């Protein structure tokens, strides 16, 4: 395992949720900030933001079931409901009743589920604000990559076979495609990504998690309605060069939530703002929180 990952794990804790071991980190001081990572890696995606954020917030950063350093069972039904339940359970364990949120990729969808629950008054905590990073908020303008479609829409036996057959070269190529052309992952980061994916033999279940990309369709009406009706301050920090959820997603966000606070990053920033442009991403995030104070 890469030393940076070993150090990351050494600073974390584990909790149990319905028989699953869930890894999480807590650090910093100040108002609680729940960070929700994306697919297919984990909270380490936010490593470059941690030191700065920890000066202003108490960061709570769990790894979702099936990803990162949490359990990755194969005979398991992964769902947005379960992931929302996991985050809720971690907040309950930490006795956190008010929280800001920062989400990326698949984490955006989990936040949408939590916003819908907020409208339904079923959360046991108060959401103070939400900052979305690039992710498939609106399925009609989301552009999945070929590998995503192949993994997600194949019959289960074929999806399982493809997942087990994935090579490092294939995973890195698919990941690099959604980075900006000038901000591709370094060789070191490629090694780290590969280590995270293979932790607890996670590569074998990539097709199970990948299916959530298309499972979002049945939630769209409920989720979008919740976003439009909520009084919780929302923002969207967007890398416009992302072929999956870049400028098209930002434009749709502005159409559906005209007062939703869109912050566009540099024109060549892609799907991973927190990795590709950490300082710019932090500045936009702080700009949003400064607007809350005003």
From TrEMBL:
Superkingdom in the source lineage: Bacteria
Keyword hit for Cytoplasm: no
Domain AB hydrolase-1 intervals: 31-121
GO MF entries: hydrolase activity
UniProt xrefs under Gene3D superfamilies: alpha/beta hydrolase
InterPro entries noted in UniProt: AB_hydrolase_1, AB_hydrolase_fold, AB_hydrolase_sf
Keyword Iron-sulfur (UniProt): no
Keyword annotations: Hydrolase
Name recorded for this polypeptide: Alpha/beta hydrolase
């Amino acid at each position: 395992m890469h030393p940076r990952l070993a150090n990351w794990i050494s600073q974390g804790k584990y909790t149990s949720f319905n028989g699953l071991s869930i890894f999480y980190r807590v650090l910093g001081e100040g108002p609680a900030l729940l960070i929700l990572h994306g697919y297919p890696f984990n909270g380490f995606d936010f490593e470059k933001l941690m030191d700065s954020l920890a000066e202003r917030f108490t960061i709570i950063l769990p790894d979702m079931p099936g990803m990162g350093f949490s359990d990755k069972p194969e005979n398991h039904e992964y769902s947005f409901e379960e992931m929302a339940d996991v985050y809720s359970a971690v907040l309950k364990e930490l006795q956190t009743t008010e929280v800001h949120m920062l989400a990326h990729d698949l984490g955006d969808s989990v936040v949408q589920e939590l916003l819908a629950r907020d409208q339904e008054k079923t959360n046991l905590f108060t959401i103070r604000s939400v900052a979305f990073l690039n992710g498939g908020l609106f399925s009609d303008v989301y552009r999945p990559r070929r590998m995503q479609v192949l993994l997600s829409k194949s019959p289960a036996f074929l999806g399982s076979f493809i997942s087990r057959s994935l090579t490092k070269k294939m995973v890195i190529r698919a990941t690099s495609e959604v980075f900006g052309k000038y901000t591709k992952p370094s060789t070191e980061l490629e090694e780290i990504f590969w280590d995270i994916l293979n932790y607890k033999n996670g590569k074998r279940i990539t097709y199970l998690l990948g299916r959530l990309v298309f499972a979002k369709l049945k939630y769209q009406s409920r989720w979008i309605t919740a976003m439009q009706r909520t009084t919780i301050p929302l923002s969207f920090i967007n890398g416009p060069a992302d072929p999956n959820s870049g400028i098209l997603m930002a434009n749709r966000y502005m159409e559906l939530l005209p007062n939703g606070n869109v912050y566009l990053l540099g024109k060549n920033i892609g799907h991973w703002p927190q990795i590709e442009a950490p300082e710019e991403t932090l500045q936009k995030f702080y700009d949003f929180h400064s607007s809350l104070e005003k």
